[in-house]
User: Fold these one by one.
Assistant:
Number 1:
Amino acid sequence: MTASVLNFVVRYSPLLILALGWELVSRLGLVSSDALPPLTAVGAAWIDMMHDGDFLSNGFAAFYHSDLVVNGAASLWRAGAGLSLAIVIGGALGILMARWRAVNIVFGPIVEIFYPVPKSALIPVTIIWLGLGDGSKILLIFLGCMIPVTIGAFNGARAAEQTLVWSARSMGADRVRTLWDVVVPSALPELLNGIRTALALAFILLVSSELITSQNGFGYLIGSLGDNGSYDAMYAVVLTVALLGFAADRLYQMLMRRMLIWRQ
Amino acid sequence: MATVELTTSAPPSAARALHGALRFGVRIASVVALLVAWELLARSGLLTPYQLPALSTVLARIWHDAVAGDLVLNTWVTIIRAMAGFAIAAVGGVALGVAISRLPLARWFFDPIVSIGFPMPKIAFLPVIILWLGVYNVSKLTMIVFDAIFPVIAATVIAIQGVERELIWSARNMGASERELLWQVMLPAALPQVMTGLQVALPLALIVAVFTEMKMGGYGLGAAMMTASRFANSVGVFAGIVEIAVVGYVLVKAMSVVRRRLLIWHQEAAEPA
């Protein structure tokens, strides 16, 4: 027990050193406290943004009406909706492309053309189509995340062993059932890897589009706090987004291991 | 993505040329169909010209920009910016990756930083970078490097750790110095995976380059597109996406050509594409 705690401390001590360095550089006045507010001030600003009024008079509403929770919920809804659409539609497209040549002939070249498009360039286009609200951001995240999911599903489904497919068919499974019971599970590892790439992209596109234009969300909060010169609060939101991205990836990896536990 | 295979036996050269032309034709058919659909949909009156300007109008606008010289300047600025950031990230990422896998002190310090920094959306730090470095080239380049360096570091560390022990032992046995071991054995053996890391980093560098231009202005395709967007000039926006898409396509394709050239000695070059 103590050994593992010690291990943890040694492993993550560089982060502690960075945090201490940050605090010292700012406290000693080596850099202006506007450019780099002390980490403790950032922490205080974070706690400040996590409640609206105090808990005694407002109860639990103080938490869910707070700046961070309200804007965070708006952001997570956009990212979640766009990513879910991308997983469902992109995954289905990739698997169909791998199993039916006609689908591949039509969509293969289109996927290949869209793959290298820098997805941030779609921000102004989605604004033209769906305006400045949630719709344009969800569309952007959907379009950007779809390609890696499709490619993962395609590569995974194409590698499904043909003998397994034949056995399923000869044992009387129809096409749809074969697809669901044989092809999808064989495609799963690559599909899940594609979704992991998409998850990281979703955060990038979410924050980019919100920084360009938005009325709420993390990106909006970062921009407006920066414009007001509340740099300690701005740092607090930036770190929150960064840590959320990190946490989402770690949670997803745990989920992925769970889902692949049936493989050796 | 091979879509058609007409014959399995090796065809004579004329038939092979025909076969190649046919394959190419099938591959571009759906892209051409998409472009035609764009033109027809725009002309059908179902959408306003603001929502979807006709492809021909957009191409005319691109031609106009090209003649005026703006297109060349903006394309050049964006490519140079993205490639400079990518090059710094490539060299720095490989160097850091080698250091992490070879020096215990570097591993102790950088390993947790990389494992936390890689999955973070670094783009959220853009306002902080602007606060520190302003809105010009230095901050754009910093942001590109910050985003593109992590996949290179991670790929290099995994690649170097995966170099076959037998190769290292043989080289040592034959009297290779540490420097020779690194340059002549480890880096070449690590190259395929390092290239894969670079191929992840390049699209990221492009995404961030375009985004920083949109956010901070100045020259570049992203900035030009954002200006068009502010003036509700939808032809300009669609011209921008076509130009940026072409730049992205050319750079990503060039990268896979470089990979094939560099790894011509590797067994992957003999595998069917």
Number 2:
Amino acid sequence: MATTTETRLSHSASSGAQPLLSIRAVAKSFGKNPVLRDISLQIAEGEFLTILGESGSGKTTLLRIIAGFENATSGEIWMEGERLDVLPPYRRRVNTVFQHYALFPHLTVEENVAYGLRVAKVPREEVADRVEQALSMVKMTAYAKSKPAKISGGQQQRVALARALVNRPRLLLLDEPLSALDANLRRQMQVELKSLQREVGISFVFVTHDQEEAMVMSDRIALLRRGELEQIASPREIYGQPATAYTAQFIGHTNLLLGEVKGSVVRCHSLDWPVMLPDGPVLFSLRPENLRIVNSAIGSAGVNVVRFRGHVCHQAFHGSTELLQVECADGLKIAIRTATRENWNGDLELEFSPEDAVAVRQSEERI
Amino acid sequence: MFSRAYRAAITVPPLLWVAVFLLVPYALLFCYSFWSVSPSQTIVHSWTLDNYRDLFRVNVYLETLFRSMWIAGRVMVFSLLLGYPLAYYLSFHAEARKDLFYQLVIIPLWVSYLVRAYAWKTILGSDGVLNTLLQYMHLTQHPLDFLLYSPFAVVLTLTHIYTPFAFLPIYASLEHIPRNLVEASHDLGASPYQTFWRVIFPLSIPGVLAGATFAFVLSLGDFLAPLLLGGPSGIMISNIVVSLFGAAYNWPLGAAISLSMLLLVLALIYLSESLEKKWSFR
């Protein structure tokens, strides 16, 4: 079962140990419309994995297949040596926090949290204890007797979390749980959710379309694009070493430079730098913050930097940084991020280190 | 914003309609119920409580009222027993055939009530379809005479007629249940059976109450089905009211019974509405 693909995909998860969940070549189509194609990935014990993608990328469908609300057209899901995808949702040790919380309106907060334990026929005293614990964990004890309609969105969110976690699932699925909250509360909940996950040690699979949220919270990010896995890696790696042009553009902001490699040197417009790549056209991703503005008075360029001149044509204020659009004489347009507060205009001397220009695959167009 | 003439033009006609066709008749009914009839068959316009006293003193009225409630109660129960599973199936499992089935439930409502009641007469009569079939199959020697002209026939016909009225509000309330609640219940480990009793049924109670009220109230006041199919043992309270206003020529007593029924029904509707409110959470 440990094919090379899987080993590569799971390299940053805790290697060696058996994965908690293993998704093997899962595909899904609705009628003739393919939604997911050949998804294989593994989730380790205690891992926070984010499935990131635009709307329509199939991320929610993948989550619903893990939860059991949809059946995969082909492929298998295994959990701790047991086939999961053949079980109905109520037999899976997986719980979900729904996008709009899906709290039962006719039950109080307390009864909502107790629901899973009651249907599992857990003894009364134990239910009471565990519900109390779960509510205090999400700081909702004061609202135990309220109906869901009487509490705010953020509070409903916490109740939904308590209702799922009280069952001690092996895996918690979260379907864009923060998307209905306003920006401030959202940032606060991101931190709370992450620390809660560390505290309980349960594996989280978190679905979002927000790349910033994904970077803040995840151990690993699985980027989906039109039903296929584009890249799966830690946030630092996916940002620093994007595998494809799509990844580089979707996560953060980047400059894509098309160069031609010939004899271990790449030429891109009038710039050139040494690379260890075979001859042919290559696309590079160069993050705006990896470009530096040089004071031209200071000496000449070092051996390991690429230096060039450009003309500032636009400046945008981004709070902690400024984003400059620079145009070079040879037609090259490039964005630069700088923390220096100044009004930039006229010509600038710029440089970057060749190792910051990451070769990326052109993302092929799919239908 | 609107001219006075315009406002008058849209408010006066409905008010007039309500006054002429509702307030005045009810006021007349109210007055009649406190008047009496002289031995020479004229209305005596002096106030008396005799009609209401008769209502409770003469056995036949109370008996018929209780029989009517007993018939209406059975119609209510059977309509719910038929209507609920139908609504549940349509809302949760019919999928592509939903619209078709929905139309099939609605279409009988387009057929005149009278036609449907007569149809049952042809089916249940001693020379009717059912008896002929039973005799042809040698299941009985003689026609079964309890089928027609009995409370059984009335309950059967009214159940047939009022099941769609029980079905519709139940169906509406089931359609209103967010499907992610059902998913959440399964997700939390509840089997389909547990999910039905813990989530779906409690959330459909307002619809059940509305459907039950429709079936009960409409059956309670029915007079055609007992007239056509009830026979002497299937007489309901409305038949008595009809005869009091007709052959018996005792409008005051008829008015008193009508008003009492009206109050009973209003109380039931009020009760059902307050229960519905208690069971809705949005």
